[in-house]
Every structure is written in C-alpha cells, then in structure tokens.
Amino acid sequence: MSRVANPVLPGCYPDPSVCRVGGDYYLVTSTFEYFPGLPVFHSTDLARWEHIGDVVTRADQLDYSRIASSGGLYAPTLRYHDGRYWVVCTLVDPADATRGGNFLMTATDPAGPWSDPVWLDADGIDPSIFFDDDGRVWMHGTRLAREPRWHDQTEVWVREFDPTTMALVGPETVVWNGAMLGVVWAEAPHLYKVDGRYYLLAAEGGTEFHHSVAVARADSVTGPYESNRCNPVLTHRHLGRDSDVVGAGHADLVQAADGSWWAVLLAMRPYGGYHYPLGRETFLVPVTWEDGWPVFAPGEGRVPAEVEVPFAAAAPAGDGGGVVRPEDPRWTSLRGPAAAFATARGDGWTLRPSVETLTDPGTPSFLGLRQQHRDLDLSASLRAPLAAGEEAGLAIRQSERDHVRLALATGPSGEAVVRAVHRRAGAETLLGEARPGAAVGSPLTLDVHARGVDYDLGVTTADGARTVVATADARTLDSVATGGFIGLWLGVYATTPDPASATVVEVDRVEYRPA
Ligand code: 6LW
How far is the CA of 249 from the centre of ligand 1 (A)? Predict the structure, then answer.
C-alpha cells in the first residue's frame, strides 16, 4: 500500500489520456505549440510516470509552424489495440480554420517512432477512438453544435472507423450535448464498454473554473445515451476559487491489472490569489462502480491530495532537481526541432542566435522546461560574446505576447548589460537593468528564484557576486491573466537582428532545483 501525491504529473500536462497494456500504463498529454509534441509516459503503478518518448518528433511529420501560442496540439487520446498504439489528436490553428484538423498516428512501440498523420474527415476537437469487442472501431469527438440551441453548445458525435482503409465510414450520430441543459463545451469524450454496456465519459463547463466530468451509458454504441443522475460525477466548481485544486475535468478511465478502476484528469492548483502559473496538471483519482455507474473519489467526491494506490511502489519519485542535461526529455523548443539552432555540448548547449525572436510565432532559438514547482531556482551559466543588438538569456514564457526576458546584451564598451523586460499583451516595459561589471562574453549565470508568484531575477559573475535585476510577478503571466491554455515555461534563448551573425552562445549548464 502506498500513498501517492497529486498531481502525478506536475506542471503543464493537460488533457491526459491513459491506456493499459498488461502491467504497463501509458499516458499522453497536450503540448500546443511546443516540440516535440505529445509526450508519452510509462508507468507500472499509475503513480510514477517516466517520459519515454514523444508522438511528434519529426518536422516533416506534422507542420505547426507559425501557429500562435495556445494553438497547436490539443487533447490527444491514447489507446492500444492488437499490437498497435493509436493516438488521435487535433492540430488547431486559431487563425486559420482550414489548417490542421483531426488526425491519427500509430506506433508499435509507444516510445516511438510514430507514423505520419492520417487525416480524418471530422471537424471539431478532442477526438477519441474505441475498439469494440466485436471488432468494430468507433471514433468520436466534439464540435460546436451545427444547430445550437444555446451559446457554445457543443455536440459529441460517434462514427465508425475502418482500420483497413483508415477512414471514417457510415453515418454519424450526435449522441451528447452535456448532462446539464444549457451547458457549454461538452468535450473530451471517451467511450468504454464495461459489463456489456457502453459508457460515454465527457467533460463539460469549459476547461477553466467550471470544468466537470459527466457520464452517460447506452446499450448501443450510437445511443441513445442515458445521463447518470449523479452528474456531474466530479467537479470542483462548487468549492469556490479559494479551493486548493480547481478546474477538475477532462478525465480518462483505466482499469488496473488488479481489476481496480482509476481516472486521470486535469486540474489546476491556484496560489497568490486565483492564478495557476503551473497550468493544468495531471491528477489521479480512484473510481469504483455502484449500480452500474462509476463513482469518482468515493466517499470524498473531490480530487484527493493523496491517493492510496495499493500496487504503487513505496519509493517516492525524485523531484527532478539538478543539472538538466541535453538528453533530458523535458527540453522543448517551439514549433520545430531544436537541432535548427542548438547542439548538445557537455552538460549544456551551444546556441546559435535566431533572427526570429520570442515575440514571433516561429521557431526562435529557445529551449525551455515546464515550470513544475511553485518554488524553484532555475539558473543558466553562459558565455555569450554578443554583437550589438543581440540578446541571450532566460525567458519565463507564456506566449509570444506575454513573457519576461532576463536579457544579456552588450553595452557601448563591450560590457555586459542585463535587462529584465516584461512583454505584456504585446507591449514591452523594462522591469530593471543591471551592469554586473564584466565583459559581455565572460562567464555569467542568470537565474530565476521563484517563490510563489514572485520571481526574483538575478545575474551572478565569476566571482560569485549576485545582482538582483528585477522581480517579475507570475500573476501577470499565467493563463488567468493572459488567456490561453498553457502553464509557464522557463528557458534559455538567443536572438540576433543579423541573419549573418556568427555569434555562438555557450550555455554551459542549466540547473532546475525545487526550493
Ligand atoms: C482541449 C479541450 C479544452 O482540447 O481545452 O476547453 C482544449 N477545452 O478539451 C485544450 O487543452
């Protein structure tokens, strides 16, 4: 017996989907504009998850260049059937409805490589796939209702899928608009068959404060679906904004090897007021069955801070603290492979500054890590012999429009100048500036000390003297403040105005330490 702390995946890991293969569990989450896309995690106990690969790893596999932040890859579903792993997902371009859409990818090894996409003739978001025990396969997803009776009414559709031709076939049936009359965004549908009956699990209320999980069942996969009188079967919206966990929804069920049932779902942990800089995280909730219906967190009715998982190993997972070496799977770039601008070297990276900056929806020279802990110290030791107009440093990133840069640049006499710049809704202000008294190319360490919503930004010279440059406020950067779907990333970047720049920035080491 072991008590497992929630969330099981801290930081921006929303829209979790899980499947079991024998004694192994696999889980994927959304990644929006980040690359590689759709991390695949492996676990043997639902508690400790190891990042074993990613679904989208090749630039020519899926093109999400120029898609603005909080667009990109939404809500994948992961299933295993007959020797193959299946991911269905949506590529969303909020600026261009003709681009992207629903697609599937398959793999024989969940760690990859995954196939190129097969595009599906289905609109909307949150696709899922269900392999029935009679050999038939059913896709489902959600979209804005074609003939809405209320604002933001969505409809969950079900349609057969032919795995031989890899195409949707036959008629489509709309089966669900949510459990509550007038509810917005019935989404994240997943179908299951339990004891001969079909169950439809779906979120509703929208992926923020009003999020929830509802369930319906039917004797036939295309319905009619009967709503559970207990709906919503899980929500935190009635607990108020002071609750330590809010926004619980978007669940997926899995039956463990011992016969017990579990759900993974997303929720947020606010702090510093109603803000959640870590974004939507992945939580684990026990499920039992009563009267042919699933009961989420029985006896408690909310996402527990700790879950008893009888088959979980007692050893706690590490906190991920220390030097984050280049081969660490947590590194992500934006919209394309980091190989375009970065080379691993020792414990760190050689970065070539890009003309694209963090303000462009492109692939700037940026390598980032999710902020997974409220309190942490992140530092980057670098040597950056920058030319005039070039920048290298640390970024606290929400999006193109909203981020803070701790930017090293060259002063008039070649001295290092460090500026903290806050880009907020597309407009920039200087938070602070320091001249640490060193030449620009000399070894310097830039750091962020996050304590709650206060991010203290500093620079340290080779002699160990640290200068505080400014303090940034996470309450201006989280998605409550900015909109969008994403938690904060912390990373290193380098930019230049000169396409012919020969500058090379040595990032000798990046350390991430929970405090
Ligand atoms: C996801 C959907 C949602 O596709 O947020 O509003 C989207 N709801 O379920 C992105 O995470």
Answer: 10
Q: Whose CA is nearest to atom 10 of ligand 1?
A: 74
For the chain, how many structural domains are there in total? 2
| Residue 187 designated active-site | yes
Tell me, yes or no, whether 345 and 404 share the same domain: yes
15 lines ligand 1 (CB under 6 A): yes
pLDDT, tens digit (0-9, with 9 covering 90-100), for 421-474: 999 999 999 999 999 999 999 999 999 999 999 999 999 999 999 999 999 999
Of the candidates 158, 154, 161, the residue with the CA atom closest to the CA atom of residue 180: 154
**Ligand 1 atom with least separation from CA of 188:** 9
Say if residue 430 is exposed, middle or buried (CB neighbours under 10 Å; 0-12, 13-18, 19+). Answer: exposed
The rounded distance, in Å, linking the Cα atoms of 323 and 158 is: 47
Instruction: Write out the DSSP string of 321-353.
Output: -EE--TT-TT-BEESS-GGGTEEEETTEEEE--
Q: Is the CB of 199 under 6 A from ligand 1?
A: no
CATH code for position 370: 2.60.120.200
Is 215 found in the same domain as 146?
yes
Task: Indicate which residue's Cα is closest to atom 9 of ligand 1.
Answer: 188
CA of 73 to the centre of ligand 1 (A): 10
Q: What is the pTM of this model?
A: 0.98
